[in-house]
Amino acid sequence: MRGRWPTSGPRRLWRCQVAKGYGGLAVRDARVYTLGWEKDGDVLYCIDGDLGNVIWTSRYVCKAGPTLGSRCTPSLDRRWVFVLSRTGELLGIDGDTGRIKWKKDLLAGESDPAKLPRKGLASSPLVMGELVIADVGAVVAVNKQSGDVVWRSEGFAAGYASPVPLLCQGQDMVAVMNSDGPAVLRPDGLTLCKRSAANAADGNGCDPLVVGQRVFCIFSGAGCGLLEPEFPNFNVIWQGKQLTSLSASPVYLNGLIFGLEGLSGQVAITCIQADSGKIKWTGPAMDNATMILADGKLILLTESGELLLVSTDGQGYKELARAKVMSGPCAAPPALAGGRLYCRNVAGDVICVNFK
Known about the structure:
The protein is mostly beta strands and 356 residues long. The chain has strands spanning 12-17, 26-28, 31-38, 41-48, 54-61, 75-77, 80-84, 89-94, 100-105, 126-128, 131-136, 138-143, 149-152, 164-168, 171-178, 181-185, 191-194, 209-211, 214-219, 223-228, 235-240, 251-253, 256-261, 266-273, 279-282, 286-287, 289-294, 297-302, 306-311, 319-324, 335-337, 340-344, 349-354. Strand 31 and strand 32 (340-344) form a beta hairpin. The protein is globular, with a radius of gyration of 19 Å. The N and C termini lie close together (5 Å).
């Protein structure tokens, strides 16, 4: 991956139009998958990653929410594409053809709708072996071949964050971040530990970040903390207000956590020491953004459509490159694959730029 680019920005290879959506892009074998919403339904798009042409679309009914647009980023596993609608339907779709192989309503007769976040569900499914795991308040694991429910956790108040895998006590567990706080689930769906934590939004939106066998959590708008899973409660290693982002998930590298401090509008990239919470540095104010980590660098896409490349040097903020690449608003993180960076905005513009 290049460390800098011209002042005009990285070269755009193609542009494609899809329907409105807040979720991101998933890439596999030069195919790009993303969701949009139109005419009372979600549309899954499969785009040729080399040319930008839509190969196929797959549609399913999904009622409109208070903010029109799909919310989930698709999850990929071999030929499978898994998506979760804002109303709680989990779908297994053939990634080659777009054919819906199975569909499961995870809220039917099971969950209290009052526990759903205001904008609907937004998390991405997690694939673990033969299971697909989705957070709809209760965390539900289904067989990825059939969609049959394997286990269902206790009920939580659903947020916007996605479940993540966690190796803990020698077992493959699942960490989740719901509106009422974080939890860690055993391989059978039983709760190992949980912690009630207030947030200043209508639901936590940052994914839990695994740091070794610990979990770093941002309580949207209210602070953050490093937690160690123990039965039946987390052990708090440290807690503070270093990071308060509403939806930009943090990243971890070489003992450092990088995230965004600020609620909306103006935020700042902040680097903190993972084991102590000590702030190493804070960058200048910038538009709200999303962030990924690649090749030891931070790649950020701001809400207004600027692309930033920032060093992960723990000694201070160092911006390597910046360029306007598309119009805003942008709500989803970019995706990097094969030396190409894929970005989208809420309106449905998808672009691919050269990142070699």
